[in-house]
Design brief:
Layout lengths: L2 H8 L1 E6 L13 H20 L3 E11 L8 E11 L3 E11 L6 E13 L15
Helix pairs in contact: 1-2
The protein binds coenzyme A.
Length: 131
Amino acid sequence: MTVNERIEHSRTRITKLVFPQDTNPIGTLYGGTAMKWMDEVAFLTATRFARRQVVTVSMDRVDFKVPIAKGSIVELIGEVTRVGNTSVTITVQIVREDPFTGGQELAIRGELVMVSVDDAMVPVPLESDRK
Ligand SMILES: CC(C)(COP(=O)(O)OP(=O)(O)OC[C@H]1O[C@@H](n2cnc3c(N)ncnc32)[C@H](O)[C@@H]1OP(=O)(O)O)[C@@H](O)C(=O)NCCC(=O)NCCS
């Protein structure tokens, strides 16, 4: 598979409903919960791309553009946007969706860097022979 095909095949979407336990005291999605979900979708995306053990080495700037109310549907989209030697950058978007109108809006965006590692946590080139 070419790198572009691997990027295409690794794109990951997770759909969730925002429950009360996911929210802050004003009833919108709690930032820490959003970042946990972003790490999860980035981990899945990077694993599908690398087909190796990966770990998060960096969560870069995260922009919270609009609040996400309790009861919203959210879609998390992870996509490889940079391929390094042992690392990949995953851009994660969280789109909020009104469950009744279907209206969608980009609510949160961030970038995470994931590193491919071996059993001793030593970074491994993404293109080396796979197990
Ligand atoms: C991930 C880890 C093994 C990398 O070790 P390291 O000594 O920094 O390794 P290197 O310097 O060889 O860097 C490896 C890659 O990570 C990148 N990297 C390292 N630190 C980075 C940072 N802060 N931001 C972005 N990229 C980073 C390097 O640029 C390099 O990428 P490349 O090979 O594509 O050029 C080490 O930092 C670690 O174990 N971190 C803890 C991971 C963890 O517990 N995560 C949470 C649970 S998943």
